[in-house]
Amino acid sequence: MVISVEFFVAPDDVTAARMGPRFRGHGLPSVEFEGFFPDEAVLEWESLFTGEPIGLIPQGEPRMVVPIANDGFGVFEVGAALRALLAGACARRLGEIADGWAALESRADDEVSSEAAMGILKSVGALAREAVRTGQGLYCWYFAP
Fold this sequence. Notes:
Layout: E1 4-10, H1 13-17, E2 30-34, H2 38-50, E3 63-66, E4 73-77, H3 80-88, H4 91-103, H5 114-134, E5 137-143
Antiparallel strand pairs: 1-2, 1-5, 3-4, 4-5
């Protein structure tokens, strides 16, 4: 199963809810990936940044804008705490998080290498900085048929 993922910056939930695989080239700042479940990844990233177990991350994170339905499509907003952590992280810190994320047992099925994880986190970190700079949200859609 190929999982299509796009993180993007959007001004609001209404705009974010319109995004998806049929609306690529929408003109919003974005990065595309494949091969991992981003709703799980953002919880793992936050846990690695904070040292808190995933179970202690506030309920409702990430916040679903378009809940996953039978079609395998969903949109969520990255929480403000993680958005700030990603935006403020230096390359060295992102590298530490990437190595930790790639090493998690849950990553075995997703096959995300340390190198790929670093590319993902650097790209999403740049989007987080843009979201913070412009006062917008950091969102993600994914399609897992």
